[in-house]
Structures
1.
Amino acid sequence: MSGIAGKGPLKAIRWIEHAAVVDVAGDIDLNTSPEFQQGLLRVLDRRPGKLVVNLAGVMYMDSSGVASLVKMLSRARRTGAAMCLASMTDRVRDIFEITRLDRVFDIYPTEQEALASA
Amino acid sequence: MNLAPGSPIRMTVLSTPAHLPVVRAAVEKVCELAGVDEQAIGGVVLSVDEAMTNIIRHAYDGHDDQPIEIELSVTDSALRIRLRDFGRSVDPAEIRSRELDDVRPGGLGVHIMQECMDSVSYEPAEGGGTRLTLTKRIAAQEELRP
């Protein structure tokens, strides 16, 4: 998947059957969220049945990053893809709880649980 | 080592998103030295980040070469953070958080600041622009000593 993963916040994209698992790392803020969003868009353009965003490597996210994920969730729903977030650090989870978006996203403690979800 | 009350730290950064990580690191360190509760530090850092993001986007319309003045000061009971921009003034009465049930990107910064800080206030700055003051209560210095 050259051209999507490696540079910027998206470090790797793995395909597991019909699911695309995206490994994200670094800080997601106003500086990096455009690249983050573009990378996820390009993965969704490949029409996965499920998109799992693995956030284990993300130590910090602000509302710019959250906004990118809200846009991707909307896009995924339009294309019929399921979208899950997995392996959030406590600090990243905090912003989802503060903004109550933890009720909107399907969030799983591990990537395996996200992949196993319906 | 604790940060002594009455010795504010001042810095001026440009309105570029590239400076956000630098400011976050500085605010986190000041929080540690000021004795902000460890569980609350992330929220303070996030609030300053959101404030700067709003300045870059709204006061300066995305221009990345404008000044943002930041002052961090400690009293016996609070950490006070002031951010001053020289951009388009916004009527403080018009600044409010949006309904969270309306799930859409954007507009969350003010809500985040109000949730994470003890007070958030905007005022027009002399000479143009806006001054935002954020405060977070901290334990009295005496209480920090064993």
2.
Amino acid sequence: MPDLLLELFSEEIPARMQRRAAEDLKKLVTDALVERGFVYEGAQAFATPRRLTLNIVGLPVKGQDVREERKGPRVGAPEAAVQGFLKGAGLTSLDQAKIETDPKKGEFYVAIIEKPGLPTQDVLAEILPQIIKTFPWPKSMRSGAASTEPGALRWVRPLQSIVCTFGPETEEPEVVRFQVDGIVAGDITYGHRFMAPGPIRVKRFDDYVVALERAKVVLDADRRKDIILHDAKDLAFAQGLELVEDEGLLEEVAGLVEWPVVLMGSFDETFLGIPPEVIRTTIRANQKCFVLRDPRTDKLANKFLLTSNLIAKDGGKTIVGGNERVVRARLSDAKFFWETDQKTKLEDRLEKLKSIVFHEKLGTQYERVERIAALAKELAPIVGAEPALAERAARLAKADLVTEMVGEFPELQGLMGRYYATLQGEDLSVAAAIEEHYKPLGPSDRVPTDPVSVAVALADKIDTLVGFWAIDEKPTGSKDPYALRRAALGVIRLALENDFRLGLADVFVRHLSKDTIEFKTKFVDTPEGLSAGEKFATFPERMKASISEDLLSFFADRLKVYLRDQGARHDLIDAVFALEGQDDLLMIVRRVEALGRFLDTEDGTNLLAGFRRAANILRIEEKKDGKAYDGEPNRELIHERGLPEEKVLFEVLEAASRHAREHVSKEDFEGAMKALAELRPAVDAFFDKVTVNAEDPALRENRLKLLNAIREATRSVADFSRIEG
Amino acid sequence: MTSEPAHMNPARSFQGLILTLQRYWAEQGCVIMQPYDMEMGAGTFHPATTLRALGPKPWRAAYVQPSRRPKDGRYGENPNRLQHYYQFQVILKPNPPNIQDLYVKSLEAIGIDTGIHDIRFVEDDWESPTLGAWGLGWECWCDGMEVSQFTYFQQVAGFEVAPVAGELTYGLERLAMYLQGVESIYDLNFNGLEGDKKVTYGDVFLQAEQEYSRHNFEYADTEMLFRHFRDAEAACRKYLEDGEPKPGSNDSRHLMALPAYDQCIKASHVFNLLDARGVISVTERQSYILRVRELAKACGAAWLKTEGGGASA
């Protein structure tokens, strides 16, 4: 079976786009083939900085033949109808049509249209230009003289040439004939830009890979990565050092070279006085080099590894020299920043935060820091932190944004603040909180545990959420530009993993009342008639409550997602959330857990069954009567005329509800569930002996009210109607 | 090349580097222009790039452009940063299919042997908010150092560039430092001579860096500059209006796109000075950039109505 080789050779493709582009190419071509009825045995795609390559093996020589019968007019139909039929079916005379008989329609003509399957090559020649012209690059461009034409090719960078061959292993493959914007597909590729730039004629994938290898191109990105990693480790080992591995950098570097050659450079030891994260970030971000560690001291070594794209005639001496020069200049800058930054205390930088706008409607970073500091102080006792320390940490938390170092390397925010805070003699938890208050940055990021860090981290996130909710900038669909979902998840993880209680609603409303939040929202124009510039303090209470409620329901959704990921049953979460006033994350989770355990017991299963029976009867009767039976049952009536089981249930219900409520108020959900379990024998007996729909309407109503009391009793722990299964 | 005298060697002489690049690009059919006689932030602002990139007419030019970045002044104390430096600018419209090879050969022409130097094209997309322009391209690396910017212009002054123009910008000082192997810009050998005939970059520019840093950060007359900004903006608009084809005339071309564009360049530089003086707040900053962009767009539109922009009577 024949194979397809396709290579799209271009100027340098951005490293970050290569892998995805190769996958897209494979998917687009194979999908288009499958859609046209072609099956294949396998497909592989590759990318280098200068080429996307696709190899599809085991394609048929041609597509499947198609036979179609087309019904025509009846025999003896008017000439016009006959002509139309002949034309449509591609026949020249009626002799070529069959005549068939149908009991209803009589005799009529049928044309047999046989379409032989097209040669695969022709189909490829049709689909490939389309795919190339509509390729989903994240960013694409026109180029050259052809760029004036309407519908000119857009490629990631100028496309230079195309190889496209098709044929069986045993024969000379043929070039698939097509062209895109004047670039004619052929069988010529090119090697490494500097080491083997000449044209190379290729036949199929096997010889193509070998020819490229000879022309100093390693086609497979994973192989390039292996080579880099292996050589890097070897070079490090030879110096008694260890490579500081960095998968992201490795992936990027493999996308910058066709023929990786790893070389080692060094820098002056005096630079090692700079924090190691800074050295690594500088060398990584600007130079795309790896750093090395001394395994004996676990500290960075004054060496780095670069990946060049050349087997240099001088063994790499010049390349290393050039890179060392740049690294030296970069580290000199970093050293200068590091030393300059230490001359100004963090608290003296706060003034500068006034000129950094956090958000047009939410004021400057300075105002934000004021809010976070107030909130952190407020939250400190809840998480067991010293309020003064939490406030201090919050006040300094954003100061490093205006340091030279963070200005140059924004990704070092927090970390630099910690270094500078430590150097200026701040309490160690204050210093730690400056770094950790950004955490957790996602579902797998570490959650801080130091109480001061926790207080500031919570304050930072809650301020963000409350602020954006107040100005009505909430995430919608896939759009979440301020990472508010992440912030909410952060609050959830902080509370749950550190095991503290926090009534969110109260915190939200109080934060909305702080007069440090500038209020320039669209609410200004609402009929409530607040004038611009009025502060949150003047926010009507009603509006505060509705913002807080809306934000809580956002937390409910995030918590559901979080708990589902932890394997909790979503119906149990719903059952708890359906209760009023659930705003304490830890309590919600405890309740869900207790409910889950309870339902696993026999008591739980039976109580749930009893609840359902009660709820079903009520639903039917309430619907029939068009009224709800939600009042208290009549005690006298039960005593006077009730059955013994009815009396017992009434008593037990009262006791069990009371016990359950008592346990809930002590947050002992386990106990509350056990108290509810007391109901079970009485409920079972009631259903066994008592006819709910009694003849006497007064008795009937009272019994329905008893059923309602069962429903109500369970609501002290959860809304049982939400439980599935 | 071997016949060049030693003091013209681009690896020894700053002016030798410039002259070599000029000669090389002249051989590729470029018009070798002289710097534009106005203060500007980058060679891209030169009308030979900004305006000539627009319209259907082919165009090839190369020139040195003194570039002023008032904020980058360091009083002559930083070995790598200047508020006034040279860019070597090449524009080829339409970009020829072998433009990358042409670029690599230009590096060879100035003495960079691709057999021992690691040349790389690393993704770097270019965007100029003030010019309403963007393009895709690379930073060109030599042994880990960025030595040029390479851009395929897609849009300028808010208009599609068709045909696409290729723009190359060499940072001359940085390139020369690498070629000459010096650690400070001020130590660059400017004229390639030795002994008492040697003139360094510092001899030529150190005093200027010190004086202009003072000016840019401390003394530039901000009141005057604000006025100049408004004046340039108003003049630009006026010239654009005055240059519009007269009603009833059978020539529909614009008559003053270039003088109007000069005022746009001026407004942009005045803005940069005000920015360096720290008198423009974060929020205002955006609005100034937008105002300059509006001028650039209007000038681009006017240019497209001139002969140079491809319009006929």
